[in-house]
Protein 1
Amino acid sequence: MKLELFESLKTGTLPEEYKQRTDEELIARAREIKEKLGKKLFIPGHHYQKDEVIQFSDATGDSLQLAQISAQNTEAEYVVFCGVHFMAETADILTEEHQTVVLPDMRAGCSMADMANMEQTEKAWEKLVAHYGDTIVPLTYVNSTAEIKAFVGKHGGATVTSSNAKKMLEWAFTQKKRILFLPDQHLGRNTAYDMGISLEDMVVWNPLNDSFEGDAHEGVKMILWKGHCSVHENFRLQHVKDLRENEPDRQILVHPECTHDVVRASDLDGSTKFIIETIEHAPPGSKWAIGTEMNLVNRLISSHPDKDIVSLNPEMCPCLTMNRIDLPHFVWSLEQIEKGEPLNQIKVDKVIADDARLAIERMFQFV
């Protein structure tokens, strides 16, 4: 029987009154409730969130940091997660039974996570095992649904983040000869290539037509799920070429969710944490073009006025789903908690959560 995630039926549409309040009123109300609830309330915020929301976060970080923080916080009764759906699911998996996880806006999803569902994954696994035998261990980027994490955990695999992908691939190759990497082909390809695995020893699995793209020969080591981040795919090789021609002194720093040609043509690539730390340690006056989400790029520009920072794609906009959580939704979620009537609760079925926790805890052994 198929196991499904469920969310509280207590969801709804943002009341009109919150749209009518000024930013000053909303900010004051958020501060008031935060002070009133104290340690009963915990607000983790992803680096890609809007400044208007991130200002209230008790902890900021990338997906790995927030997963660790969620696992460590056992005190708060309510966790208001300022991120996207899969992150809130992970928080629910890792928090205690008495803790309630809330996502201020249920529309805050992730197109990459939606590119791999259970039906597709189970069909793919059956065909891949038939083709390669018992030689495959699955890994999934944390940018995936709880169901996919559970599938990976159940089959002896682990989750990965862009911060620890190399470590996790190294571990996986001690388990089996091959890796099925879900759902982002680019992070899998770029990480494996950096480890010395040739592109010829990687093959793409297309879940839309249940078939390989490329030569699925016996020497294949990486089976890459055909998924991607719609934000990072908008950084293209032409953007790099234009900068090299017009501003050869500007260093190019990108996230490994970018395509392989962009990563190879750039000066540096790494996780969100790596990008932030690289800019923090860069000398004054240095010039950078960054290939990642625009809320973070704009925050780096604002935080480092002594450096010349631009987006690698001059026409880039923020991640639409990350941008869903705004002040009105945030304050609405806080006021409902204050009333004792929390909305938009994220609750993962226990059986799925138990299997997903296996995958996450295997990752935690190496961070």
Protein 2
Amino acid sequence: MSDIRIGISGWRYAPWRGDFYPKGLPQRRELEFASREVNSIEINGSFYGLQNPQRYANWHADTPEDFVFSVKAPRYITHVRRLRDVGQPLANFFASGPLQLKEKLGPILWQFPPSFRFDAQLFGDFLAQLPQDTDQARACARHADARLHVQGYLEAAPGRKLRHAVEIRNDSFLCPAFVDLLRKHGVALVVADTAGKWPYVEDVTADFLYLRLHGDVKLYTSGYSPQALLRWQARIEAWTAGTQPEDARLIGPEYRPAKRQRDLYCYFDNDVKVRAPYDARHLLEGLGRSPQRRQGELV
């Protein structure tokens, strides 16, 4: 049976307090609350700056046993260095604590800015550097800056496969060479709904799917109607069953992925109007995957 994870991108948003989060809920317990409403969360603080092993360990402890995080990789690698000379930044990232999530560590998201154009050599070299399992990630982390060699920085669940996903925002990526590279390295192409602002493609390039739903009418703001959620539900059911939607928007339409069950991770990022957690919950309910609510002790 496919593992279907539906959740939210981040969880610390002031407008959610007194709405999604019950009035009076301490901020330090917001993750505890949110992780019992959805079954996965995308950590986005890691995009803006390196965290630390203790923080990741705390997030692991605050969430249910059967919970999964995705981790958004640092923009320093994708936006500042733009994939050039990133060996040391990669080591620093893996030393900063994501391996402390242990069995709760899901995919790592690599998001690229709209100004970043596809360069086959540069991109291929980058994908080849990504660790494919936790043992490789630990080996990478050993080369981190000395300041990051703190307690817990090498702790990890041994031998666990790592998954990577790439989100694009430039039309230069809409070429077969790009999807060929992703398939070669087993990296997922993010299906990103951005209200038409950036490329929307649905090519299957890995043994899992990764969706980011930023809003279908207004970026980061608009919620998804019941009809829109039903459409996403049907697409998710097709992908996880090993097929793809008949109207899938593909870079390489001639390619037919192997018919096998696939895991799927989907995160709502339309947080401005407090729609993300409710849309995630409704989609989970439609798919019959809702975690049981146990909120009484949290308020």
